[in-house]
């Protein structure tokens, strides 16, 4: 279905601009920004197809994996190797286990040592998988010229906090300790949405507890401050894809009753942000999570952490999933890949200089 939908959307986006405006509806301008016309067209069509009923969690998970068909698929020469990552016993896990993973290797890398990105998928801590994140991981591998290890973590509500974070931190710790097994010249960590939160928080945890962490963090439209209100969560509460009510549902899934919400999801109140590695933080102008992502970028910069912060004003949350049909979303993904390539090249050079 989504393959057909992608072809339909590409055909619509190829129409003359006046026709696209007619199909998309009146221009949407909020907070001094204008919603990208092609994004508006995609949202309108998806809204028409969705119908009126709220899907179950099972249906949402199924649709999230299938929706990868809308994402960018032009990644020639990238191979995918299924594997698993061992993790120790921990929260919600009585014995050591293994996390499903896929290792993506671009042709330009081959068998030689190269930078590696450990990637965690988005989905509100309750949706998504290594299948849903495959198109983005392939694009990052292809465009940045790095290996990408996509790791699947336990999902809420079956496995609420701290299960997902424990999995993310354990996977990153394993890769750092066994980088030779992955032929990794240096190790970065990244993700989108909830996965970006896990990447940021895992990097911070390891820096605090192990004194060794990822060399770079790639965070795309991250959630950083659960339970907040106002600002972008109010401005873009409805009508732009991800709704604030959806965020609140995911937060209830992820955070057990009585747990202070900001502690497991945010870095805005910690007093040791300076231990974080360099970061790339991207936000979307019409995203309810926009403000908290940008506040984190400011806090990191104030702590002396090198940060490249980008806002894509016409885009919405989850724009990587539109990169196969929306040119502005494609450009934003290319920007992330360029930042990843540059950031990892610089960190690799620094590590070589130390040795």
Can you walk through the features of this model?
The protein is α/β, with parallel strands linked by helices and 355 residues long. It has a single domain (68-354), classed as Rossmann fold (3-Layer(aba) Sandwich), CATH 3.40.50. It contains 12 helices and 10 strands. It has helices at 2-13, 17-24, 37-50, 57-66, 134-144, 163-177, 194-209, 232-235, 244-254, 262-265, 290-302, 327-354, and strands spanning 29-30, 33-34, 78-87, 97-106, 114-120, 147-151, 184-192, 217-220, 279-284, 307-312. Helix 2 (17-24) crosses helix 3 and helix 5 (134-144) crosses helix 12 (327-354). It starts with a helix and ends with a helix.
* Beta-strand residue fraction: 15-25%
Average pLDDT for all residues: 91
What is the quaternary state of this protein? single chain
CATH level 1 class label:
Alpha Beta
Radius of gyration: 19 Å
- Can you tell me the overall shape? globular
CATH fold label: Rossmann fold
The secondary-structure class comes to: alpha/beta
Number of helices: 12
Element order, helices and strands?
HHEEHHEEEHEHEHEHHHEHEH
In terms of per-residue confidence, which ranges show pLDDT below 50 for 5 or more consecutive residues?
none
What's the architecture in CATH terms? 3-Layer(aba) Sandwich
Strand count, sense and barrel status of the largest sheet are: 8 strands, mixed
Strand order in space, largest sheet: 3-4-6-5-7-8-9-10
Features:
Rossmann fold, 355 residues, 8-stranded mixed sheet, 17% strand, globular, alpha/beta
């Amino acid at each position: 279905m989504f393959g057909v939908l992608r072809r339909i959307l590409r055909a619509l986006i190829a129409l003359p601009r006046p026709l696209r405006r007619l199909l998309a509806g009146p221009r949407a301008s909020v907070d001094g920004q204008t919603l990208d016309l092609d994004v508006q067209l995609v949202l309108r069509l998806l809204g028409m197809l969705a119908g009126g009923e709220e899907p179950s969690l099972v249906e949402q998970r199924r649709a999230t994996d299938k929706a990868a068909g809308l994402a960018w698929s032009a990644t020639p020469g990238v191979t995918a190797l299924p594997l698993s990552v061992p993790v120790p016993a921990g929260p919600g896990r009585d014995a050591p286990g293994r996390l499903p993973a896929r290792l993506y290797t671009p042709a330009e890398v081959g068998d030689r040592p190269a930078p590696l990105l450990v990637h965690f998928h988005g989905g509100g801590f309750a949706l998504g998988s290594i299948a849903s994140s495959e198109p983005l991981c392939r694009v990052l591998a292809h465009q940045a010229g790095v290996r990408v290890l996509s790791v699947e973590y336990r999902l809420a509500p079956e496995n609420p906090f701290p299960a997902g974070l424990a999995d993310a931190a354990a996977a990153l710790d394993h890769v750092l300790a066994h980088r030779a097994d992955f032929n990794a010249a240096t190790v970065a960590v990244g993700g989108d949405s909830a996965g970006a939160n896990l990447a940021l928080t895992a990097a911070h945890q390891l820096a605090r507890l192990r004194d060794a962490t990822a060399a770079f963090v790639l965070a795309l439209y991250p959630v950083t401050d659960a339970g907040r209100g106002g600002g972008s969560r109010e401005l873009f509460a409805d009508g732009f894809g991800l709704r604030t009510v959806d965020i609140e549902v995911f937060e209830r899934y992820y955070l057990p009753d009585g747990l202070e919400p900001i502690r497991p999801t945010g870095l805005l109140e910690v007093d040791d942000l300076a231990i974080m590695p360099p970061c790339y933080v991207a936000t979307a102008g019409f995203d309810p999570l926009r403000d908290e992502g940008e506040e984190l970028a400011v806090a990191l910069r104030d702590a002396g952490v090198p940060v490249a912060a980008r806002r894509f004003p016409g885009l919405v949350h989850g724009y990587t999933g539109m990169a196969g049909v929306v040119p502005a979303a494609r450009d934003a993904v290319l920007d992330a890949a360029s930042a990843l390539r540059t950031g990892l090249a610089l960190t690799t050079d620094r590590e070589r200089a130390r040795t």
